[in-house]
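Input set for joint prediction.
Command: fold jointly, output tokens.
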Amino acid sequence: MEMIMENYSHILIFKTNIKTADDKFRISEMLSYTAGINDWSVDCDDIDCVMRIVSYTLNSAQIIELINKMGYQCQELE
Amino acid sequence: MNIHLTLPSEMRIRDEHKEEAIREKAYEIIVKKGFEGLSMQKLAKAAGVSPATIYIYYKNREDLLHSLFNHAQKEFAFFALRNFDPSVSLEEGLWLQWKNRLAFISDNPIIYQFFELFRNSPLINHKNVSMKEFKENMVLFVKNAIQRGELARMEPEIFWSIAYGSFYSLVKFHLQEKKMMTENFKITDAKMKQTLHMVVKALKP
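tokens >
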């Protein structure tokens, strides 16, 4: 049995309060100007408004700081 | 460049088996409870993983559904194209298609039910990338049969209804999704052959 494993450390998952289309728009502007973010999405349908970030250079603490600065809550999702 | 070093204990590892387990659970939930019964949270609970794990693989429910549909299509195409040669006779080719499709259904009953539910659903805006090779083979097979005079020209929907609709009806009786005279209708090679002879006759020019 062959186990194919791939490192997924570049995918960071957060619980946020980015709820509305307006919130998402504000975040999208900021993230599009941030170097080192390859892809991002927020699932506004989920109760935890889960934000998914693909970055090979930024870590969770740095992402949390960026989002907090915009006035939104952000914590790593377990 | 700002390089973030991750400790091995924090490393997120992609595990194909875990991904497979999540996918299987997702098909199961959809087949049992319908599209509305599936949420990322419910899926995490059912699969015994954390919601964060689900989000590593999928961005949201829509992304998950697309991925499930694409996976189902790939599985189907893999089975359907097994040993298939589009240059064989109509009867031989259809026989292999029926056998291959029955093998797919028997091996993947849940995926088959999911497929049936969502094949024509507007909820799934499918891209069909994985179906290119399958479609090319099926088109070539039909064209060859027309050229050899084994098959009359007709609209694709009419062809499908006769060539495959009959087969899928038998499958539905076999799976007891439909009932008629016999309580326990079971599909067999002999019954499929009998049907196929009539189908091939009906399709002649």
